[in-house]
Amino acid sequence: MSPGSNFRLGISEFFSRQFANIQRITHAGEERYSGMIAAIFQLCSYSMARVTMAYSKNGSTLSTREKALAMNLDTSTYGTFAEIGAGQEVVHWFFSVGEAAGTIAKSISAYDMAVSDNLYGSAQRYVSRQRLSSMLAQEFSELRERLDAVRGQEKRFFVFADTVATAGHQHPGLGRAWLGIRFQTEPRAEPSEIILHAHLLDTSASRQREVLGVLGVNLIHSAFYRRDDIDSLICSLVDDLERDQVELDMIKFNGPAFKRVDNRLATLQLVESGLTDAVMFMADGEVVQPSEVLYKKPILVERGGFRPANNLTLDILFRSLDQFAKEPSVTGHQPLVLAEMTLHSLTPGPSVDHADFLARTEILGSLGINVLVSRFEAYYKLAEYLAIYTDQLIGIAVGVPSILQLADEFYYKDLAGGTLEAIGRLFKRSVKMYVYPTRDTQTGDVRTLDDIVVPQPWQHLHDFLREVGRLEAVHSYNEANLSIHTADVLARIQRGDASWKTMVPPRVAELISSKHFFQTEPAPQAVEAKA
Q1: Better-predicted residue by pLDDT, 201 or 352
Q2: What is the mean pLDDT of residues 183-197?
Q3: Order of strands across the sheet that contains 278-281
Q4: Among 163, 182, 177, which Cα is nearest to 113's?
């Protein structure tokens, strides 16, 4: 162990002794000192947290063992561990480092489905947010009911829970887990909560369990010691882990400790930090794990910057939806409509402008459109991602320029098979593109899928994709919208030219005007990769 580690643990042990002295005085019945004792108790607890944070900010990241031991030595925390599906990998860390008696009130693994249902109620899926929420609620209620009278004055109660599916003989492959913690920031305070979803990417069950254990310790430690810095909290979740071991594609914060946290921005950080390839928000702003809403659904998606959503971009989407909904495999089903923004399209400057991002999502939400934010550049990556969750038809609404870019080798330099491989991967599954016309900027003529000229020899591939029904022209469209360009709409907003209001739906115009969206100096525009 390094000298820095020894010092950190020494600090923890010092505060632990102070906690013990305070507890002895309290238990001795010194009622007149109770208020002062409680204040000192909290000061020691928070001081230890700050010491831990100080070392982490100086680049000295705590190991998993150090985090578990720091929690055990912080005698202000006391809680329950409830784990289903992969053993008890998280609580094992707290038992193995010692001093667990001051931290662990109960450890439980309701592995049998009937037992789990009896404890937490029935659930359609056992590895789900619903099951995790039931576990957190039931265990915290029980913990507080049983121990508040005897420990509530001096302890910050918490419940950690996870429900997990790892690789097995019948189901080899990747694992997935829902994890959460419900905790008090002060004794007898109302609880706050963090829940997250993880993909366990190792191929063996034993390695997946090891990753789960580290991830759980990180979550518990971060909830108590990093909750005031959400960026730091999120990054610390993968301490001691590699990106090829775990992917975090959903996180949500609730409760008084996170009153100022916008869950859309917190979830966006998962993409910004490279912890996942894509995250999703519903039209009402609710963050979701993609499988919760994409599972076995027909999906129509349009890619764009949506800065702002305007009459053209929306006509592309909804005219495509009209045709998509009439597909034989879609008829009778409710399609899920998505607006996809790539991380590239969100960064016209050196980094993502969060206020700008929220403006785009709020406008799309007001139109009832769900949002997917991704790191994908080529369309085939988007299609492969969506196909993980659904075996139904995937529709992609595009303009003619995107079709012309499909055959551009520039976008496929990382593929050994170049354009052929990219297009093969794009249309390998049940994928269909709906192609909206464009206006030729030089001649003013309208160009549709029927009359565009694709460079040779790719014209033959273009004809083949049309013949097998993978490309379809959007025939019903509003020609007046073809003169609208998103960059021009934005420029008019930013220079105060009121004519922009004719280029967006009235609802969008009202929202932009009332909330002053996009009304800053223009930033250099990134070129969106459409291929």
Answers
A1: 201
A2: 98
A3: 287-288, 278-281, 370-374, 336-342, 299-303, 394-399, 431-436, 471-473
A4: 163
